[in-house]
Specification:
2 helices; alpha+beta; 55% helix; YbaB/EbfC; 108 residues; Ybab, Chain: A
Length: 108
Amino acid sequence: MFGDMMGMMGKLKETQQKVEATKKRLDTVTLEEKSNDNLLAVTITANRQIKKIAIDDRLLEDKEQLEDYLIMTLNKAIQNATSVNEAELAAVAKEGMPNIPGMDSLFK
């Protein structure tokens, strides 16, 4: 029994290391979100760090419109990045979890 516990602890530590490596890798995964008319584009990492915002000159003429575009496009970008982030981390965590009945439903 003690050996099983040590094996499980080792597996959990290994999983923790994989999660940390995945977090670092997600810093390099970039997603691009554009407004419906392509006047605004946002590049974001899967760890939700904004890397670039490209604004068409036509949006600079109307401050309120630009603000609306930024809010909508940034929110979509953050939502997509969060989905990728959560899916990647859940996959790594699920892979490293011991087979405990009922636990698999937590990672769906």
